[in-house]
Amino acid sequence: MTKAVVVGSGPNGLAAALTLAAEDVDVEVLEAAPTVGGGTRTSELTIPGLLHDECSGFHPLAVDTPFSRRFDLSRHGLRWRWPEVQYTHPLDGGRGAAAWRSIDVTATDLGVDGRAWQQVFGWLATRFDAITEDFLRPMLHVPAHPVKLARFGALSLLPASTLARRWSTPEGQALFAGVAAHALRPFGSPMSSAIGLALGTAAHSYGWPVAEGGSAAISRALVGLLEEHGGRVRTGATVTSLDELGSPDVVMLDVAPAAAARIVGDRMPPRVSRALTRYRHGPGVFKVEFAVQEGVPWQHEESRRAGTVHVGGSLDEIATAESEIHRGRMPERPFLLVGQQYVADSSRTAGDTVPVYAYAHVPGGWAGDATPVIEQQIERFAPGFRDRILARHVRSALRLEEHNPNYVGGDVVTGANDALQLVFRPRLALDPYHLGVPGTYLCSAGTPPGAGAHGMCGYNAARSALRELRGRSAGHS
């Protein structure tokens, strides 16, 4: 029987394992940590009964993909829950803007900027299924929908600072700036609009859902379905070399690109090894989990009902902060992403105390303490917030890497989203998953289509491996 070993049990490693196991491959997953999940772990980090997502909390690109259509995770307990408001952006004085699932409601709320929002996101939202069919794959392929992909690509090429000027009000500009900041790129750089366009469109097409009971429910469902297909998971198993794995037919590495080069070692062709070791990581994040009594008292009313709140002030303020972290300097007012998953999923709360996470964008590998500036930024838009904090759990950029080695320097998106790497990660190749060694593949978020608990990196890598296996079989017949 064909055997495979998957190193790493993040959502991509588990997706790769499940895709192989469903094709009658004997699969074992090896995880160094004591628990599975990678970026989809959920824990009681502050007070008993309060469920905190340790990394990924919102999953706009996970609900309708080739992987999610192939495997019904709901049979193993995965339930998606949506907030009333997908994301918001508060401004000073109680002002702000909100992105609703309905693009018409969003446009109406934006007033004079509503038409421009419709022009950018309306066309994309009605065609997003076709667009994602192409951009959830490696870039070097024949597009299934070339015209739609070209229009999305033309907007994506723009710097975020340029596209944001399509809106004339501080509210409209800030609403786009907040979602564009997910790219962790300077707003003046080419293609810094791409992530914001994708996530903004997804908010209207799919929403920004959370997993009921925490993101660990995704891992549990993946493991449950994997075991149903005969796969196994072993935790506490660190792998440093291919020599430790015996002679499986397939090896899948759900690790950072440079770590893959170390594990494969001299077996890897020098050109591939050079590309992986030169792979660039981006800025880090500094994350604080809060136990907050009665929630965050946002002055902007819609922010109290939003799953995600982007905190950073105006377009210019966010652009300045993002530029600073890329220069290796910690800004006085960093951009924050505040997660309020409990507004969609009340099972995470304990009485009137709710879990809130906040992370600040910081320079890669930054060793300082951002807790005071994070609280100051939230307090700016939610006076009285500090008085409601009952407990905190803090992870610096360096501690995030210790917790999950794929997050090099606290880089939770597993790679800098500069123009070249955004399109051709981890290297320029027809099959970016294959590591130049027969049967050996990279399946982490360092491969297309990149970060997110959508499992598509693992699914794509496993399909590549299955093609190789079929080719071997045909060659032997």
TrEMBL record:
Q: Which InterPro entries match?
A: FAD/NAD-bd_sf
Bilayer-crossing residues are none
Pfam families, per this entry?
A: NAD_binding_8
What domain of life?
A: Bacteria
Q: Which protein is depicted?
A: Phytoene dehydrogenase-like protein
